[in-house]
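Colleagues,

For the teaching module next term, I've prepared a clean inverse folding example: a structure given as tokens, and then the sequence designed for it. I'd like students to try predicting residues themselves before seeing the answer, so please don't circulate the second half yet.
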């Protein structure tokens, strides 16, 4: 039987603790190839590098990992580059383990989740794993993240995309695993305005997340109750309900014979 191939990436950078934990956990269950950004790319979303050349560097590997590359670009660059250059056909593209939550609207900003999106765009099953808090619980995130990734009851189709968030708790205090939808979590007072030594203003993105309209079946609620949250995401952002309304509206125009 051929072994499963895991392509592992992240947005915290190739030397981050989270990607190491993830890769070392997965290596017991299949082949692991790592390709991750040279420096941290948190909050870079789905950015790609178009106007400057990319360079990839092959790094040493340890403990059974098949290959490890770093690219001086974004998480999406890494996934695109490694799939093409090594002609990989991964069974799963996994991004993480991110140090910090990727809940609700975070997925739109997150390099971690965007790397998984890129895997799905390229036609592979993909998942993002994030730890919602302190690095001391990275082992909890690795254990539960990998448990979900390896759950053979899950039907991984070519564009399956799971966003997994693990609460920052000791292993034994995790309450279980919940399937969730994305919450509406936004940031308030996002910029701090300060003055530099020459009296000019500068701005530093800070702010705190505020949950608007929290519901029991959503990711934020699950994690705050001590559950691992698993949200299935779609590449297709089409609002189906609004589409039906618009279709009718424009069809009406046709029928009234306007020109
Ligand atoms: Mn990050």
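(Answer key — instructors only)
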């Amino acid at each position: 039987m051929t072994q499963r191939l895991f392509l592992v990436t992240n947005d915290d950078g190739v030397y981050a603790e989270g990607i190491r934990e993830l890769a070392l956990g997965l290596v017991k269950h299949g082949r692991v190839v790592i390709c991750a950004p040279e420096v941290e790319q948190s909050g870079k979303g789905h950015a790609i590098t178009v106007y400057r050349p990319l360079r990839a560097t092959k790094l040493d590997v340890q403990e059974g990992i098949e290959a490890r590359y770093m690219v001086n670009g974004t998480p999406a660059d890494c996934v695109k580059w490694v799939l093409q250059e090594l002609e990989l056909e991964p069974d799963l593209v996994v991004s993480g383990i991110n140090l910090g939550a990727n809940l609700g609207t975070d997925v739109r900003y997150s390099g971690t989740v965007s790397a998984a999106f890129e895997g799905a765009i390229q036609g592979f099953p993909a998942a993002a794993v994030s730890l919602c808090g302190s690095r001391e619980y990275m082992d909890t995130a690795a254990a539960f993240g990998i448990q979900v990734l390896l759950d053979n009851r899950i039907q991984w189709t070519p564009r399956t995309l799971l966003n997994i968030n693990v609460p920052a708790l000791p292993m034994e205090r995790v309450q279980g695993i919940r399937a969730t939808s994305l919450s509406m979590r936004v940031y308030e007072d996002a910029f701090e305005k300060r003055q530099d030594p020459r009296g000019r203003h500068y701005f530093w993105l800070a702010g705190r997340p505020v949950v608007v309209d929290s519901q029991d079946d959503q990711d934020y609620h699950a994690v705050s109750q001590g559950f691992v949250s698993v949200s299935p995401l779609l590449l297709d952002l089409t609002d189906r309900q609004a589409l039906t309304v618009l279709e009718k509206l424009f069809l009406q125009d046709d029928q009234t014979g306007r020109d």
